[in-house]
Amino acid sequence: MSKHDEGRRAFLVGAALGAGAVARATLVPDALAQTYVQPTAAHALAQPHAMGSGHGAFFNDDDAATVAAFTERLLPGAPGKPGARDAGVLNYIDLALSGAYADLQDFYRRGLAALEVHCRQTYNAPFVRLPAAQQDEVITALEQGQATAFTWPSAQAFFNTVRTHTMEGMFADPVYGGNKDFAGWRLVGFPGAQVAYTQADLQSSQAFTRLPIIGLQAQAKG
Q1: Class of residue 70 by CB neighbours under 10 A (exposed 0-12, middle 13-18, buried 19+)
Q2: Which long-range contacts link 115-124 to residues 24+ away (Cβ below 8 Å)?
Q3: C-alpha–C-alpha distance, residues 136 and 172, integer Å
Q4: pLDDT class for 54, splitting at 50, 70, 90?
Q5: Residue 168's closest CA among 62, 60, 69, 95?
Q6: Stretch (H or E) spanning 39
Q7: What pLDDT sits at residue 42?
Q8: How far is CA 177 from CA 28, 49, 51, 115, 152, in A?
Q9: Nearest by Cα to 194 from 214, 180, 211
Q10: What is the C-alpha end-to-end distance of the chain, expressed in Å?
Q11: How many CB atoms lie under 10 A from the CB of residue 40?
Q12: pLDDT of residue 205
């Protein structure tokens, strides 16, 4: 892993910690929480995809490949350190866009189309075929609002939204389709939705490490 990748990982993990990723069992907006508590028929149909191929609820194959590559550059994996692909971030975003985030479907369609135009105009290749260094250049251009192919959404709005959804998919409860095998929680030392802590746990200043890590799905079955 390059120093650039290490720096990006450190920034996003630190941002997640600062946002309270280890302070509660879920890092998702109220809309997603409501979808879990009061699931709709559409949401119920989407649930089997959570452990499936990683997309199919909203994204087509090409868009799924682009989102997977983009999110992996935002939060790259390394030996012993899970990244966006390892955590199933693509699956999380795909399911969210077919349910609680359905109002962002056109936002993603137009944003991904503009991303491809920018990449072809600048590098004569789609995003997924660019080497990591050039993918990072593209992402930086979006972050700084310098990708002129974007109108609506703006380049910065698209970058900020995908970055936010990447963090949600990495650190939200696995019931929403991401954080596969508790990859994000293991990364930051979060124990999940534990029903009780011992007195020693409450007094300890060390990260909670006692297994198993517990998610909302286990609580629902209890």
Answers
A1: buried
A2: 115/66, 115/70, 115/142, 115/147, 115/149, 115/158, 116/66, 117/149, 118/142, 118/147, 118/148, 118/149, 118/150, 118/155, 121/149
A3: 25
A4: low
A5: 95
A6: none
A7: 36
A8: 12, 8, 7, 25, 28
A9: 214
A10: 41
A11: 12
A12: 75
Cβ neighbour number for residue 33 with a 10 Å cutoff: 16
> Average pLDDT over the chain, rounded to whole?
79
Residue with tokens 């490949």: 65
Average pLDDT over residues 96-111: 96
User: Residue 81 pairs with which residues in a beta bridge?
Assistant: 78
pLDDT of 39 higher than 90: no
Tell me the backbone φ, ψ of residue 193, rounded to 5 degrees: -85, 65
Write the DSSP assignment of 108-165 as a string of letters.
Answer: HHHHHHHHHHHHHHHHSS-GGGS-HHHHHHHHHHHHTT--TT--SS-HHHHHHHHHHH
Which tokens sit at 3? 């120093």
What is the band of 79 on the pLDDT scale with cuts at 50, 70, 90?
confident
Helices assigned H by DSSP within the chain: 3-18, 30-37, 41-46, 61-74, 84-87, 89-97, 105-123, 132-143, 155-171, 183-188, 199-203, 216-221
Output the pTM of the full model.
0.75
Residue 155 pLDDT greater than 70, yes or no: yes
Confidence of residue 221 (pLDDT cuts 50, 70, 90): low
